[in-house]
From TrEMBL:
This is Oxygenase. Its main location: membrane. Keywords: Heme, Iron, Membrane, Metal-binding, Monooxygenase, Oxidoreductase, Transmembrane, Transmembrane helix. Its cofactor is heme. PANTHER family: CYTOCHROME P450 98A9 (PTHR47944:SF10). GO terms for cellular component: membrane. One of its GO terms (molecular function) is oxidoreductase activity, acting on paired donors, with incorporation or reduction of molecular oxygen. It comes from Lithospermum erythrorhizon (Purple gromwell).
Amino acid sequence: MDAELKGKSLLVREYLSSVAFNNITRLAFGKRFMDSNGVVNEQGQEFKKITHDGIKITAKLSIAEYIPWIRWMFKVEQDALDKFAADRDHLTRVIMEEHIKSGNTKQHFVDALLTLQKQYDISEDTIIGLLWDMIAAGMDTATISTEWAMAELVRNPRVQRKAQEELDRVVGPDRIMTEADVPKLPYLQCIVKESLRLHPPTPLMLPHRASANVKIGGYDIPKGSIVHVNVWAIARDPAYWKNPEEFRPERFMEEDIDMKGTDYRLLPFGAGRRICPGAQLAINLITSSLGHLLHQFTWSPQPGVKPEEIDLSENPGTVTYMRNPVKAVVSPRLSAVHLYKRVESDM
Ligand code: HEM
């Protein structure tokens, strides 16, 4: 950890976004755009601008999906969308060419798609579309979920301490946590579940269109209607949850409730045919991030702020960010300084 950060109040989101950015670009393209000092190169800046523009434009255009007769008002956004798509496709083609030329054929998502391209006759446009589906759906959601979990942990020092006790027991002070430790960290896993219960990043899931006239729960849903499932409300319904507003990971120790589409009380990743294909990856990323953050540091509110004053209000939207991003003061927990050094990773 940089010495100048010790005892300072940090904007947690800033660090989590960098982690998500590096994770997703490595997964998709086998490439890091950020050097070991955190400086993003030119191609990375372009990548960031494209993802940022994409989110902004599609959020605006989605309004026209619900009220089709106002579509004429979105001519500027439609033009911006076309430009965004052209920039995105150009950048992706450049990266794919570099990837092929470099002979780097490890199992990144782009390799998997290029390997299957001939066998399944997949067009280049489809490959680009699939890569960007993964980037768009995976980058912000994992960051947002980890940020909410961190806010809850700063707000609930009891839970934070209990998770650290578990990490100290299983991992100890002389090494950092690895993926192999996760099955031995049930409380940490329950924290991830409890956080996704209270703060699903897509509270209304993604929109679905009814393919036939159906009746559900006494309501007639005509063919063609856009349907949202309010998984946020279901996961806070007192009919199914005891003290639903309370952040209490222990509830999942008492009853093991699945969150990958089989138990309809808890559906942060949706269910059925269109369930999130990145669910397990997201769970692994969030668990691993939280495990490292809690094992290596203690997180406290900023001076003058009591834990219970951490603001949990939401910014409404299809994707729910914290309205006031959590800030926290960190103190290192491990005495061996070398454990805080950056580790070169094999890509
Ligand atoms: C905490 C993190 C995440 C949450 C809460 C989440 C949640 C969701 C939800 C609710 C859906 C819609 C499911 C439905 O309509 O039934 C979805 C779809 C999707 N997710 Fe995720 N997701 C997360 C992370 C990821 C990651 C890391 C990836 C990939 C790297 C990803 C890729 C996708 C894709 C491609 C779809 C569209 C699937 C389709 O329409 O068939 N997601 N996600």
